[in-house]
Amino acid sequence: MDWTLPLLAGSFFYLYFYTPILSTIFYSSSLMRPLNDLLLKVAEGLPVERPPVWMMRQAGRFLPEYRAVRATAGSFQNMLQHPEFAAEVTLQPVDLLGVDAAIIFSDILVIPEAMGCPYVMEEKKGPVFPNPIRSLSDTSTLKPVSSGTNLDDTFEAIKIVKEKLQNSVPLIGFAGAPWTLLAYMIEGKGSKTFSIAKAALYQNPDFCHYVLQQITDATIWYLKSQIAAGVNIVQLFDSWAGQLSKDDFMKFSYPYLLKIAEAITEVPMIIFAKGAHYCLQELSQLPVQVIGLDWTISPNCLGNTPAVALQGNLDPCVLYAPLPRIENETLDMIRSFPPGKHIANLGHGIYPDISPEAAKCFINTVKNYRYS
């Protein structure tokens, strides 16, 4: 039997019916890559013509437009609970400042809240936990995180932002690192010393490790859910790493950072451990793509050709300077980092009384720079 005709007919059937489907799949997947993908390229080790730039706390009080949304919402936590408000302020820095990435507007403390340890944001005082967790008996109120909690608001905000961004720039998701969240949950509030939380590390380490593992499990679920909702890259904030000695950091923070980093394989990860100058070599060994540096850390801390990309690290207070000084300081910062392995950022979040013009000067200086 001559199979030529049936084979041709089958080929026609395949091309006629499946090519449109395959084309749609290919087209949809290609849209997943943002048009401006500089941030992702640096994280992936790909060549770039200049550093990408964004700012921690870029959706914040220094923008009059943010303050207007907050006034409408009534409070910081109302903004978190209403995805349309969170989405609006997430998009503001992209539209107003021209940053190379958006970061979803949220708070690191939504994880303790979802676990059953709620907090309130008190004006001029910061977060306060009415019922801090200080012993194993207190952990009876803790629960695994899941859908149907306050975290759903973040996922919904991500979906709104992704739709409105139209893949123009990457969207960054984030979470607080386990030690930083534990510090708040034990201390009950922000602190200059976190002496209550640190005392627990010495007096009741088993309790601390138990809660740290609970937070780690919750964080992995939360980050994976953000990724499923559409974020392109995630950052882990260990804001209070600098409160620990190296030995304590390696016992009570690093193992849990490692567990999270090993679990998050879908998108690149940035780890920002503020004040952890004593263990940058160890942090660079984590399976992450980017290490964030605060303004006290030299860009050559990991050598001239680090295995990971670096993010940072302009002192936010530089933005109080006259615009020509901001430009010069920004250029000095860029030139101190390895070309192609740098995401330009501040060494911590932008302060609320810095002018938008100063922020624009910083951003535009980076965007106008080109590697020779």
Q: List the uncertain runs.
A: 4-31
* SSE pattern: HHHHHEHEEHEHHHEHHEHEEHEH
Number of domains: 2
Strand coverage percent = 5-15%
What is the CA–CA distance across the termini?
A: 66 Å
Topology of helices and strands:
Blueprint: H1 4-31, H2 38-44, H3 64-73, H4 76-81, H5 83-97, E1 102-103, H6 110-115, E2 120-122, E3 126-128, H7 151-165, E4 171-176, H8 178-187, H9 195-203, H10 205-229, E5 233-238, H11 246-252, H12 254-263, E6 269-273, H13 280-284, E7 290-292, E8 309-314, H14 323-336, E9 342-346, H15 356-368
Parallel strand pairs: 1-4, 4-5, 5-6, 6-7, 7-8, 8-9
Antiparallel strand pairs: 2-3
Keywords:
TIM Barrel; 7-stranded parallel sheet; 372 residues; alpha/beta; 2 domains
Quick structural summary:
This protein is an alpha/beta fold. It has 15 helices and nine strands. Strand 6, helix 13 (280-284) and strand 7 (290-292) form a beta-alpha-beta unit.
Task: Walk me through the structure.
By secondary structure, the chain is α/β, with parallel strands linked by helices. It is 48% helix and 10% strand. The protein has helices at 4-31, 38-44, 64-73, 76-81, 83-97, 110-115, 151-165, 178-187, 195-203, 205-229, 246-252, 254-263, 280-284, 323-336, 356-368; strands spanning 102-103, 120-122, 126-128, 171-176, 233-238, 269-273, 290-292, 309-314, 342-346. Helix 5 runs parallel beside helix 7 (151-165), helix 8 (178-187) packs across helix 9 (195-203) and helix 8 (178-187) packs across helix 10.
